[in-house]
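Hi team,

Filling in the usual template for the complex we talked about on Friday. All components are listed, including any nucleic acid strands or ligand strings, so the model treats them as one assembly.

SUBMITTER: L.P.
PURPOSE: interface mapping
COMPONENTS: two
RESIDUES: 907
SEQUENCES:
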Amino acid sequence: MDFKLKIWRQKNAKAQGHFETYEIKGIEEDASFLEMLDILNEQLIREGADPVAVDKGCKSSGPVSFDHDCREGICGACSLYIDGRAHGPDSQVTTCQLFMRHFKDGATITVEPWRSSGFPIIKDLVVDRSAFDKILQAGGFISVRTGAAQDANNILIPHEKAEKSMDAAACVGCGACVATCKNGSAMLFVGARVSSLALLPQGRPEAARRARAMVAKMDELGFGNCTNTRACEMECPKGISVDHIARLNREFLKAKFSE
Amino acid sequence: MADKLISKIPDGPLAEKWTKRKSEIRLVSPNNKRKLEVIVVGTGLGGASAAASLGELGYNVKVFCISDSPRRAHSIAAQGGINAANNYQNDNDSVYRLFYDTIKGGDYRSREANVYRLAEVSAAIIDQCVAQGIPFAREYGGYLANRSFGGVQVSRTFYARGQTGQQLLLGAYASLNKEIAAGTVKSYPRHEMLDLVIINGQAKGIIARNLVTGKLERFGAHAVVIATGGYGNTYFLSTNAMNSNGSAAWQCYKKGAFFANPCFAQIHPTCIPRHGDQQCKLTLMSESLRNDGRIWVPNNLDDVKKLRAHEIKASQIPEERRDYYLERRYPAFGNLVPRDVASRAAKERCDAGFGVNETGQAVFLDFADAIKRLGHQRVAERYGNLFDMYEKITNSSPWEEPMMIYPAIHYTMGGIWVDYDLQTTVPGLFAIGEANFSDHGGNRLGASALMQGLADGYFILPVTIGDYLSHKFAEPKTDINAPEFEEAEKAVQARIDKLFSIKGKQPVDALHKKLGNIMWDYVGMARDEKGLKKAIEEIQALKKEFWSDVCVTGTNEEFNQELEKALRLADFLEIGELMARDALNRTESCGGHFRVESQTPEGEAQRDDANFMYVSAWEYKGEDKEPELHKEPLKYEFIEVKTRNYKD
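RESULT (copied from the run log):
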């Protein structure tokens, strides 16, 4: 398969970005999107190292930087906005689990980084998502010390409750929800964590404090509000439901009333 | 130097060793802990749990990871589960059985005392994780559910769907966040350790590159903990994450830490087969699938030919023309034999010409019987997400046709040599999790990596490191302007400058693929003397090629993934050579290390206990010099060493 790629290039956080267009040929349809980018990068490096290609006017900005790691859809590192959609045209996958068979041969594909003021660009397609760490540091945990735990089977959790908690806990922290939200809201991310812990008896003692602190931190870091467009749910690679935002709202209101 | 290999295993009965050691360890008072600094490198299960626990104890902790967040460490990708001897199933499990299965699964090349301790603390891990809010699978009555894994006959594996590693890591990461918020831990994401700093023979700090700015930064401490995982990516294609690397451990080796059993690499039997040359990464399908999936190939070459030509589908091959070769060869364990045994059996069938796809390197993992027996819904509850993942990647549905699988490099049992306290041969330098060598011998059992990472990080290192630090609280903070830091930073800078100065023609990945091919061909599932010698020669030649023709684009003073990869590949080239050297030395077959020269008439691995019942610990002797081999003899006082038997 052959493609034309329009890719966002930006040297660093302060530099002005721009699109560059590349052509790539002979991609296997079973190759993943990121493998396709690996091949592009190898091509760009070889062209850059080749004086003849440089003479012919090859002046690309070198290989394209993009975050990636596990390539199994679980680490949440990859983060591309492809043809106007977070993680591209397939549903419920991260970019690393997107395969070229989902594109038409000869297509032009536009690749951008996450676009959100909460995630400043580091380089090309790489963004800074440390705001997510900061939100979780504000309260996304249960305050238990190592070694202080009781026997695991002393805490009974009905099957359905555990499954529901797990649905929310499946969040990989990729930031697609923020990138796709017109308000740049992190409510699905925060909702998933708050809800996952609030559903479990172990999480109840700190539920109110957690909801308050995480929402406050999210606001402080410049993420927008939720206006219930449900775009986040549509683009979440793990299919996390906006029900968890509703539960976050309940926990938050309860916390406010108990103040 | 032999006296450096003191394992410090406490005397006394096996079950009392850990208690005894804990009672001997000197304590550090809370006001002194505040004065002590510890560096933890890596934030997988081992690193995150250690940093969090050390922070809780009151030490000043600095934690480093190469990703943009500690949560992305590759522990997150572990699917199937975590073993623990809670015996909630009442199937006669016990600490002793978990210990015994692990020693036997490791083919009698791990330390009795370490493995027993691992089993001993395993139940506390589950308690801890549940308290952190990890949504493990539950029975309808609300009690914890379990499943089975390879190499055992009980159900002791706890799980959270097919995302157990993710949930455990998010638990450890949450504890880490709690400590970061409390100010006891300072986190440095997007930082890569490039050297270890030693002052007066003791580990005192690291040089790390800020991966965003490129700046080399110095960090001092009273002790350094390495938790950077394994070196499986030496093979280029593996199930490891793309950024997983052996560099931090390798720098420690070059600074004097012995490297143990480098040739023990695990090849996991259930990975999605390669699709072509453009591939960068192999995907694992959880071992838990072998609970209900049956592995087979056709028993005749005619069907194989038709399968490869897409003339028939697997589901059309009748029962009598199938060879369920694991059930045939190992009736007692069937599809749940350990990973090394299952991998070799798959290779044996494929080498005999029975591979079921175009490349000839694939076997079937079939769920038709399980779906018939359990029904669609129960199979979906157990494996639904894995089926989806398989279908996304391969475009084929496991509900209709069996999965195709083939072995791939997955885990490295070898690693930095440590004593019972998890301290390396360099005082003040500790290694935990996959980065050390201590618990899995020649082969790791499924669902035991998570157990070891968390055992080391939550329950062992935070105790044992105290013994070392109890002598250090009077020492002042490490001065990062000391000449040793200066020198280490200069050396790192020189290495980086050299890479940029080469301006060669070959991209880093192209050279890494070449290394991967050498490793897979000669240091893979079957190794022999001729091949290993050839591997060493070829790797040395490739190393020269790398240092004269690699193309590293960009500059140091920026976010530069090509430079990151080049620095890591420089180390993989050396790691690969040491792996081959160790494999050449160990002329027995043992666990994941199969020497063609050493097998039984039935083709099973043949250990040589008389000559190889030891840990090989390699000492770095300088650039282009041969490393020196030290041997730590393994003594089995409490169990009888047997030939592994999964047949009856």
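MY TAKE: Chain B touches chain A through 88 residues (CB under 8 Å). The radius of gyration of chain B is 24 Å.

Thanks, L.
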